[in-house]
C-alpha cells in the first residue's frame, strides 16, 4: 500500500478506476485468445446456484429413463437411504430436500429451536457459530449475539430486511458469533466491511474459546454449527490424524459434551469423497447436490439416525402415523419436498460418486496443475503472495492471497462479501467483461472449479477452456494491481 496512507484511499482509487479496469479486461480477452463465440459460455466454477454446471451423464440418463415411469416417491426415499447407509453404516441415514438452504432451514427449526406448544412463556434458545465465511447461510437462522453483530447481514443478498436474509430467523432462536483465534477481521473493500481472513486460525485455541462460550450459555444452548469445508482459506488448514479438519472435530466434541447437535453446512461439498461426518462427530451434514456433486438442483441431509428421525418426520417421509415403515406425505416441511426428479437426480449422482470418485478427483488434479502453472506466470512482484490448495471435498482449487497483507506483502486488494453483493468486487465483475462467468471470490480467497463449460459431457476437463478461465483471472489481478501501483 505504498501509494496510499490509508486502506480506504486505495479502495476509493479502485472505485474511480473501474471503467478503465473493465475496458482493459475486455481487451485482455483478445490477448488471451478467447474466441468471441465462446464468451459468456464458460466460467470459473460450475458450483454457483445462479448458473449450474451440467449433471453427470448417469444423472441425465436416469432422469430420461424414469421420466415415463410410475415410481412412488417413498420408493425413491428408501433407495436414497440404502445408498447412503451402504457407505456410512446403519447408524446414519439420509433425506433429500429441494435445496441446501431448505436443508439448513429444516435442520435448525427441527433440532435447534425451542418448542412452540405448551402453557406459559416460550423459552429462548441459542446456537454457537464460528465467525467464518458465508456466515449469512448457516448463521442466518437466529438473532445475532452479541449485539455488535445485529446488522451483520444488512448488505448481503438481493433483498434486505424481513424479506431478505433477516426473514430466515427462527422463533426465539439466537445465534452466538464466536471469533476464531488467529483469524483476521480487518476491514477491506470498496464496500468497506470486515473481511474474514482465516488462514492463520488456531483450531485448538478456537475450540477452547467456543467451549468457554458454551459454558456461559449452557442453559440456553441448543446447537453448534459450522461450515464443512477443508481448505486454509476457510479456516480448516489444520487436520487431525485421520485427515478430518481439526476444528470441526473439536466442535463436534464440544457439541457432544453439551448434549446438543452439531449442524454442518457443507453446501459446496461432495458426499463420500469430502468431509466425513463419521470423523467430525457432526449430527447432520448438509449438501447442495447441484454444486459440486453433479446432481440436478436438490439438497441432501446425511446424519445420525437419532437426528434424522426428527427431520424425516418434518418432511413426512418417516412413515404414516397409523404405522408404516415409510411414507412421502404431508408434514410441516412439505414445502421443501424435492419431488421425483430431485430424488432420482440425487440417487444417480450418489451412485456415480460411490462407483467413480475419479470423476471428481481427476479434474481437480488437472485443474490444480493449470492453476499452479498459470499463476506461476503472474507478475514476479506479486507471485509469492499467492498460495494454492486442492479440495476434493468441494471439487475445487483454492487460491488465497491473505499473505499479501502480512509483513513484506504487496497489499493486493481484498474485496468484502458486501462487495460481491453490491457489484463492486472487481475480481468477479471484471471476469464477466472478458466473457468468463465469475466464481466465488472475496475476503482474499478465490475458489475455482470445473463444470461450467470447462468439462465435456462425460465430465472430463477441457483443458483449453479451463486454461482460458484461469488466465483471465491472472490477467485481471494484474490489471487491478497495476491500477494502484503495486506492479
Question: What report would you give on this structure?
Answer:
InterPro entries: PyrdxlP-dep_Trfase (IPR015424), PyrdxlP-dep_Trfase_major (IPR015421). This protein is α/β, with parallel strands linked by helices and 487 residues long. It folds into 2 domains: 174 residues, Aspartate Aminotransferase, domain 1; 299 residues, Type I PLP-dependent aspartate aminotransferase-like (Major domain) (Aspartate Aminotransferase, domain 2, 3-Layer(aba) Sandwich). The chain contains 15 helices and 18 strands. An 8-stranded mixed beta sheet has the order 4-13-12-11-10-5-7-6, with helices on both faces. A 4-stranded antiparallel beta sheet has the order 14-15-18-17. The longest helix is centred in the N-terminal third of the chain and has 26 residues. The relative contact order is 0.18. The mean pLDDT is 95.
CATH architectural group of the largest domain: 3-Layer(aba) Sandwich
Q: What is the CATH fold-level name of the largest domain?
A: Aspartate Aminotransferase, domain 2
What does the radius of gyration come to? Answer: 23 Å
How many beta-strand runs? Answer: 18
Largest sheet: 8 strands, mixed
Total number of distinct structural domains:
2
CATH superfamily of the largest domain: Type I PLP-dependent aspartate aminotransferase-like (Major domain)
Broad shape: globular
The proportion of residues forming helix, as a percent range, comes to 25-40%
Q: Mean pLDDT, nearest integer?
A: 95
* Portion in strands: 5-15%
Main sheet: which strands, in order across? 4-13-12-11-10-5-7-6
Helices and strands: which structural class? alpha/beta
Query: Count of helical segments?
Result: 15
CATH class of the largest domain, named Alpha Beta
Report the span from N to C terminus. Answer: 11 Å
Low-confidence stretches: none
Amino acid at each position: 500500500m505504498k501509494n496510499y496512507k490509508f486502506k480506504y484511499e486505495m479502495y476509493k482509487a479502485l472505485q474511480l478506476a473501474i471503467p478503465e479496469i473493465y475496458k482493459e479486461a475486455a481487451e485482455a480477452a483478445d490477448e488471451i485468445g478467447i474466441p468471441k463465440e465462446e464468451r459468456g459460455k464458460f466460467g470459473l466454477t460450475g458450483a454457483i446456484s445462479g448458473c449450474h454446471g451440467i449433471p453427470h451423464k448417469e444423472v441425465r440418463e436416469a432422469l430420461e429413463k424414469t421420466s415415463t415411469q410410475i415410481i412412488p416417491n417413498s420408493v425413491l426415499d428408501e433407495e436414497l437411504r440404502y445408498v447412503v447407509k451402504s457407505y456410512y453404516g446403519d447408524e446414519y441415514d439420509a433425506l433429500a430436500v429441494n435445496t441446501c438452504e431448505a436443508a439448513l432451514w429444516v435442520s435448525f427449526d427441527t433440532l435447534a429451536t425451542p418448542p412452540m406448544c405448551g402453557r406459559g412463556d416460550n423459552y429462548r434458545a441459542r446456537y454457537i457459530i464460528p465467525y467464518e465465511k458465508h456466515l449469512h447461510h448457516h448463521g442466518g437462522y437466529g438473532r445475532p449475539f452479541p449485539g455488535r453483530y445485529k446488522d451483520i447481514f444488512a448488505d448481503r443478498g438481493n433483498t434486505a430486511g424481513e424479506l431478505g436474509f433477516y426473514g430466515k430467523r427462527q422463533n426465539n432462536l439466537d445465534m452466538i458469533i464466536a471469533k476464531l483465534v488467529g483469524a483476521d477481521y480487518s476491514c477491506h473493500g470498496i464496500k468497506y466491511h470486515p473481511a474474514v481472513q482465516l488462514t492463520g486460525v488456531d483450531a485448538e485455541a478456537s475450540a477452547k474459546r467456543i467451549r468457554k462460550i458454551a459454558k456461559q450459555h449452557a442453559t440456553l444452548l441448543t446447537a453448534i454449527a459450522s461450515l464443512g469445508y477443508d481448505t486454509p482459506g476457510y479456516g480448516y488448514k489444520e487436520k487431525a490424524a485421520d485427515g478430518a479438519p481439526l476444528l470441526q472435530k473439536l466442535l463436534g466434541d464440544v457439541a457432544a459434551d453439551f448434549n446438543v447437535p452439531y449442524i454442518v453446512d457443507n453446501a459446496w461439498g461432495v458426499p463420500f469423497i469430502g468431509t466425513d461426518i463419521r470423523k467430525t462427530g457432526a449430527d447432520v451434514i448438509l449438501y447442495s447436490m447441484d454444486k459440486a456433486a453433479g446432481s440436478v438442483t436438490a439438497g441432501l441431509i446425511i446424519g445420525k439416525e437419532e437426528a434424522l428421525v426428527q427431520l424425516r418426520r418434518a418432511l413426512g417421509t418417516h412413515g404414516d402415523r397409523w404405522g408404516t415403515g415409510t411414507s412421502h406425505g404431508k408434514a410441516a416441511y412439505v414445502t421443501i419436498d424435492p419431488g421425483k426428479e430431485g430424488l432420482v437426480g440425487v440417487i444417480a449422482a450418489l451412485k456415480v460418486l460411490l462407483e467413480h470418485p475419479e470423476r471428481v478427483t481427476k479434474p481437480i488434479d488437472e485443474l490444480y496443475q493449470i492453476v499452479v502453472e498459470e499463476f506461476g506466470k503472474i507478475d514476479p512482484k506479486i507471485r509469492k503472495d499467492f498460495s494454492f490448495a486442492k479440495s476434493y471435498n468441494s471439487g475445487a482449487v483454492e487460491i488465497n492471497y491473505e499473505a499479501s497483507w502480512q509483513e513484506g506483502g504487496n497489499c493486493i486488494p481484498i474485496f468484502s462479501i458486501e462487495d460481491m453483493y453490491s457489484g463492486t468486487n472487481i475480481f468477479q465483475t471484471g471476469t464477466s467483461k472478458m466473457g468468463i462467468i465469475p466464481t466465488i471470490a472475496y475476503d482474499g480467497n478465490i475458489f475455482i472449479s470445473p463444470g461450467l463449460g470447462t468439462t465435456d459431457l462425460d465430465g472430463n476437463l477441457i483443458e483449453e477452456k479451463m486454461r482460458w478461465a484461469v488466465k483471465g483471472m491472472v490477467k485481471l489481478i494484474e490489471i487491478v494491481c497495476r491500477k494502484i501501483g503495486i506492479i
